[in-house]
Design brief:
The protein has 15 helices and 34 strands. By secondary structure, it is an alpha+beta fold. The chain has two domains: 254 residues, SGNH hydrolase (Rossmann fold, 3-Layer(aba) Sandwich), CATH 3.40.50.1110; 397 residues, Neuraminidase, CATH 2.120.10.
Length: 683
Amino acid sequence: MVNTAIAKSLLEGVEAGTPIDVYLITGQSNTDGRADFKMLPQVQQQSLRKQPDVLFYHGATEPRRDASANQWIALQPGSGTNFEINHTPDTRQLNFGPEVGLGQALLERQSPGRIAILKATQGGTSLAVDWAPGKGRIWKMFRRTVDRGLKSLGDAGYQPRIVGMIWAQGEKDSKDPQMAQDYEAHLTEFFTAVRSVYGEMLPILVTSINVFDAADQKIFDAQQAVTANDPYAVFVSTDDLTFKDGVHYDAASQLVLGARCAAVLGGDSMKQVTIKPTAWTSQARRMLSTDEGQLARLTLGNSDNLIEMAPVNLPGHGAGDCNHFGWPIATMVDQTLVVMHRRIPGHNRVGAGGPDESMSYGNVLRSDDGGKSWSQPYDLRDCMKPEDRNRGGIVPLSHRSKFDLDNHSPLGYKVHLHAIGTMRDGAVMAINNHGVFRSEDKGRTWKHFSTALRDDTFPHMIVNLGPRIFDDPKMGIVAFGNWTGTWADKKLYKQLVVLQSPDDGESWKATEYPVKVAQYEPAALFYDDEYLFVTRDQSNINNKPMHKQMSWQQGQSPQVSDTNMVAPRLIDTVDLSLNPITGRFEVLRSERDKMELWIWSLAPEDWGTGKWRRECRLFKRDGKFYQNADGFHPAGAVIDAVRGVQHIFIYCGHPNGPAGVFRITRSLDTPRLAAYLNAQPVK
């Protein structure tokens, strides 16, 4: 037994706000643990007997346990119920479940002292009765165990966040024909209930039931059906594991199972759980509001590898009012894509619903395989100190006039919209309504600069940002925008605001330059020793607003000119890039009045003319903008010259939600792409 003093010492001396990832283990006997630790080789026993760098907590529901229950201890075997094959207690055994292998595998990828495993299990229990949400005996035990474990971590100074759950259960339900018949519905309901409490996009790993008869097969099929339709659930096969008694895994297999689950979860603070981007669910189709023909055309196979469209992050069940995922922007570090988007009640305040604690302007996802799979979203607020996270209220300063009209607090960060970029040293910088953030490990973990752009350190108006951050060798870190104010004070919009940080994001100064025309969220490109911009002039949104061009060098006045990119009413923030294959500037531009997304291009030598060429339409959706349709904000796209593609991130859905984030990856061979798309017209 581990005494209370040792357990208490593990939670001493923790710096307030220290983040820690919590993994849940739930289910019946194979997660509870029947494997005998003493059956492992002696050398392996020595290395696994105690793992002080991983915290472990389990709720005791049976009288005989070797490891101390209901408190945080160093991870070790002994939490499993000690039964011989004939199910009689045996005090000689030191039993365990997948937690030992899970902890060992996680330590290979994650920082020691930042991993916690919390186990709430009970053998011989049914999902239909014992785990039934809200009323089942074990459901109540599960909630009590998890809540107490999280509270004690918080009391010790940690900032815990649940990042994954392992579920191994089904044998009990297979014994009852009606329970087996209803298992799929019950499992779906159970996952929804868990996520409603502990995170709506919580990744859940379902370890497969062992199939010995037709009744087991029903449970197995239900497990596969649920995980196939759940974007945040993964089916983990166990058919190669071996048993100690024909039902329960032996010691070697429990280690394999734990390591297998760690591999699926990714093991770092951004869990690389596949969100099945190629699974076109009915929800994704409703958000896009397009026909099957267009979706078929936007596939690699049909387009000869020219273009592909796929979901990235969609609001799940129980998302509540904050189900509008929008304004995605991205950067790339080596071959890792990092996407940031906001999660708010809606675009149109009327009918959008109200904010809650899930409201965030900094949800981040990563992909190491060109967008085929994505990490679970990470809320950048989770790296903020508690006093900074809700400074002035849960609604950020710039959006209180939209979602918190009665809140007149001046406290907060003076930022609207957001920007992202990769620095010369490989760090990722991000700015959003919650302030300034930096990651030095490709977006896995983040640091918040508590005072940067804050109300008491930034003596200016709120700055309305363009989508890109640059690491300028002369000026330091640079971002561009304009001041925001009331519609009556339009002079605020007629300034190019240059934000500069000389110290990697910790402090900022602002310099403003008169532009003479209203401009919003300038999309910038550094080219031939100057910054080029395409920006929005929507002084009169009902009188043909125009995308303007600007060029600027440090210390000089911006040069502004017109373009032929005009709309009848509303325009959107664009992406501006130099295509390395065609050698032409390219703009990704929403035509909001028709809900279409287009590529426009211009030769660099023709910049002064402002006469852009309309190349091809990438996507079209049904509906009327701001009434029953919303999208696309294609700003902050990424050029991947190695693969010869551009990754474009858009949002699409309803103005009041739900709306989700999607990826369009297209070839940089724009002439070939245009020939294909223009020959494949969409109504």
